[in-house]
Amino acid sequence: MSLEDKLKKWRKLEAEAREIRRREADWEFIKKQPARIRAALKYYIEVGDIRGAARMALMELEDFRELLRKANVPTVV
Amino acid sequence: MEYAIADTCFLIDWALWKRRDVIFDLFKVVFTPELVLREVRSERTLEWITDMLTRGSLALFTETPDILDIARSLVERSRMIPGLRGVDLPEAVCLATGKLRGYLVLTENRGALMAVDLLEELRGVKVWRALEVIAEALRRDIIKTSNPRVIFKEYEDETHHRFPRRDLEAILNELGR
């Protein structure tokens, strides 16, 4: 498979994962969060970058992972 | 399979599963980099790690200069290909160890999975997610069940992780059930 085909494949997987995160998220919970946390959760839902989102939230990775559970946002890998 | 090396994303989910110890039936030793250990915070995960370190099933991996060099290079390279999710240092250390030492890499980090698929220098590095670990435990009858789908669902429910449907169905077909 060429690099371009591989990238296409990964983009498709990312899009599917994003759709699952968006659909399952507890948006009521997310809306109630402080601005920084809310932004980090939305970033994670859209991009799936857990480290980047944890940094944005000023949280440690494992703490942010726990927050994702509370927000009903699954990791899709 | 002898050795595996696990990153944070893998460990912090895997530690929540009631069948988490099956991993030590698959590998002689599971290593975890010191960098990764620094990111683990919950009492539950730390207790499990400590128990497993005591038993010798889990071992700390000290990042040597050659591993760190390759890891840093991977972090940079992963950001040079448009569309490739960047890899951060803890994952890159695991990938570098997979490359230099032949350890199987345990990760749930999409950037790491993409890097192995897309970067020439990581060709041959074997990467497993929880999906592949559970599949192997089922293949070898380490987990016995007449319905493997239930086992994958149990993992999803207990960790709040979702397996990509296509990958899960492919594995269930291959397991013949």
Taking the sheet with the most strands of chain B, its summary is: 5 strands, parallel
Mean pLDDT across all amino acids of chain A: 95
Poorly predicted segments of chain B: none
> What are the secondary-structure elements of chain A, in order, as H or E?
HHHHHE
Radius of gyration of chain A from CA coordinates: 13 Å
Number of helices of chain B: 10
Per CATH, the superfamily of chain B is 5'-nuclease
- Put simply, the count of helices of chain A is 5
Architecture per CATH nomenclature, i.e. the level-2 architecture of chain B: 3-Layer(aba) Sandwich
User: Which structural category do the helix and sheet elements of chain A fall into?
Assistant: mainly alpha
How many strand segments of chain B? 6
Secondary-structure element pattern of chain B, one letter each:
EHHEHHEHHEHEHHEH
Indicate how many domains the architecture of chain B comprises: 1
Q: What's the average pLDDT of chain B?
A: 94
Helix content percent band of chain B: 40-55%
* Poorly predicted runs of chain A: none
What structural category arises from helix and sheet content of chain B?
Answer: alpha/beta
Proportion of strand residues of chain A: under 5%
Q: Please give the oligomerization state of what you see.
A: heterodimer
What can you see in these coordinates?
- The complex is a heterodimer of chains A (77) and B (177).
- Chain A contains five helices and one strand.
- The longest helix of chain A is centred in the first third of the chain and has 22 residues, at 3-24.
- In chain A, helix 3 (35-47) packs antiparallel against helix 4 and helix 4 packs across helix 5 (61-70).
- Chain A starts with a helix and ends with a strand.
- Chain A has one domain.
- The radius of gyration of chain A is 13 Å and the shape is elongated.
- With 77 residues, chain A is mainly α.
- With 177 residues, chain B is of the alpha/beta class.
- Chain B has a single domain, classed as 5'-nuclease (Rossmann fold), CATH 3.40.50.1010.
- Chain B is built from ten helices and six strands.
- In chain B, helix 5 (65-78) crosses helix 6 (89-101).
- Chain B is globular, with a radius of gyration of 16 Å.
- The model of chain B has no long low-confidence stretch (mean pLDDT 94).
- Classes of the chains: A mainly alpha (77), B alpha/beta (177).
- Chains A and B meet through helix 1, helix 5 and strand 1 of A and helix 1, helix 7 and strand 6 of B.
- Strand 1 (75-76) of chain A pairs parallel with strand 6 of chain B, so a sheet runs across the interface.
